[in-house]
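User: I'm curious whether this sequence folds into something compact or stays loose and floppy. Could you predict its structure so I can see for myself?
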Amino acid sequence: MTATASKCVNCGWCCRKAPCGWGEVTSDKDRTCKHLAPHPTKKGRWLCGIYDRIIGQPTSEVNPAFGAGCCAALNSFRRAIIREGL
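Assistant: Here's the prediction. I'll summarize afterward.
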């Protein structure tokens, strides 16, 4: 069985659930990564604020999975972006 990923739409869902190994939680109650930043030109989209620091580091090609998208069935953020064409 092979896993396939959906195209990333920059919904920020993964980083809202928990940060990657390079990230940091916002607080003990809020598990959102504090480096999650609004996209500068696309309303409702999000980017990693420390992407340039992470990319190129050992294992960064698999974790975090930049651009791989999210396949979680409960990701309503991704579904809304696709539905609304944001």
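Summary: The longest strand covers residues 36-38. The CA atoms of residues 41 and 86 lie 11 Å apart.
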